[in-house]
């Protein structure tokens, strides 16, 4: 079991697209390289597992099962074998917009500077997601 976090930060972006569309796009791991550069430069499905070539090295990514609630939680297993749980939600904002909220947790041993760097990466990824979805 993972150690408890020291703190959490909610990083959010509003996207001018219906929540169902945002969820459908973001829930497909094959789309990760288009918007989640902090996680994946390339991804492939191998033996029933999603494997990504990330800035951290080879990682596996496991998403929550498809659901009607906008839950995009995913576990990333690092090259060290440690698994990091990432809570993510797609929240409806009326009929034509949504908000994506990523809960970033500062784990034991992560410096303040590294936590701020991680927050900047998550923010950039969510902004990229907005750009991809609003361009279509």
What does this structure look like?
With 136 residues, the chain is of the alpha+beta class. The protein is 26% helix and 36% strand. The strands form 2 sheets. A 5-stranded antiparallel sheet has the order 2-3-4-5-6, with no helix packed on it. A 3-stranded antiparallel sheet has the order 1-8-7. It is globular, with a radius of gyration of 15 Å. The model has no long low-confidence stretch (mean pLDDT 91).
Features:
136 residues; alpha+beta; Alpha-D-Glucose-1,6-Bisphosphate, Chain A, domain 4; five-stranded antiparallel beta sheet
**What is the CATH top level name?**
Alpha Beta
**Average pLDDT score:** 91
CATH homologous group name: START domain
Q: How many separate structural domains?
A: 1
Helix content: 25-40%
Strand order in the largest sheet: 2-3-4-5-6
Number of helices: 3
Distance between the termini: 41 Å
The biggest beta sheet is recorded as: 5 strands, antiparallel
Low-pLDDT residue spans: none
Q: Which band does the percent of strand residues land in? A: 35-45%
Structural class computed from helices and strand pairing: alpha+beta
Number of strands: 8
The SSE string, one letter per element, is EHHEEEEEEEH
CATH architecture: 2-Layer Sandwich
* Backbone shape: globular
CATH topology: Alpha-D-Glucose-1,6-Bisphosphate, Chain A, domain 4
Q: Rg to the nearest angstrom? A: 15 Å
């Amino acid at each position: 079991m993972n150690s408890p976090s020291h703190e959490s930060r909610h990083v959010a972006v509003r996207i001018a697209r219906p929540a169902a569309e945002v969820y459908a796009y973001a829930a497909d791991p094959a789309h990760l390289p288009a918007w989640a550069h902090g996680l994946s430069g390339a991804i492939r499905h191998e033996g029933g597992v999603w494997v990504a070539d990330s800035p951290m090295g080879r990682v596996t990514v496991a998403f929550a099962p498809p659901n009607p609630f906008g839950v995009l939680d995913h576990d990333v297993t690092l090259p060290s074998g440690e698994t990091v749980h990432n809570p993510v939600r797609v929240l409806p904002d009326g009929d034509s917009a949504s908000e994506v909220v990523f809960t970033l947790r500062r784990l034991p041993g992560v410096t303040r500077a590294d936590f701020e760097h991680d927050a900047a990466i998550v923010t950039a990824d969510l902004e990229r997601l907005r750009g991809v979805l609003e361009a279509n």
